[in-house]
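Hey,
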Amino acid sequence: MQARFQQIKSVLLDQVSAGLMQAGDKVPSENQLAEQFQVSRMTARRALTELVDEGILARVQGLGTFVADHRPMSSMLEIRSIQDEILQRGHHYSNRLISKHSIKANDQQSVWLAVETHSEVFHTVIVHLENDLPVQVEDRLVNPAWAPDYLQQDFSLTSANKYLNSVAPLTQADHIVEAITPSARLVSLLNIAPSQACLKISRRTYSAKGIVSYALLYHPGNRYRLGSHLEFTPLSEEHR
């Protein structure tokens, strides 16, 4: 027979697994759990403490205990290969190449890459998977002037970002993040419900030579998040 604190843990874990409690939801307090399961506060506290230690729950001082958010987090202040991000988390990385070819730039694409309209540019669409689950659709345009061998690369062995940084080292990047409703194509590529919101990152990268690429990166909102840590140096009195 399970110890009482284990029974409480099992019930809470079942609720999280079933989606009855989701990331950010507040968990019943020690007093509420003690009353619900007819146990002491110490027993309820042990159940919550072990779930916090296991990373299932998170305590916020003065506010309570909440279901932890386990979606991968990507920094907004650095440009990293999605492959490196996934491997750094200790997870399995794989990808599916959807298309790889040269196209004639339309008016909008020519603006993005600062090339002449109808000039040749390279275009790839790649789905990146984490533990066999799609986490990003990468729709990328590349200026052939700075990466002439781009289409000859085997993207099952290297990421587009990593290759481009090796031939035209990144010096600057602009990006815009917005929430979107996915198209039917994105729903299929990401294997998500049509109602699932997505994060869209529009990113233009530069080297010392010029604009190298323009990428549209799409992430399922329930599998990915963006964040960063900032540190500020206090201003001296004379600068306030």
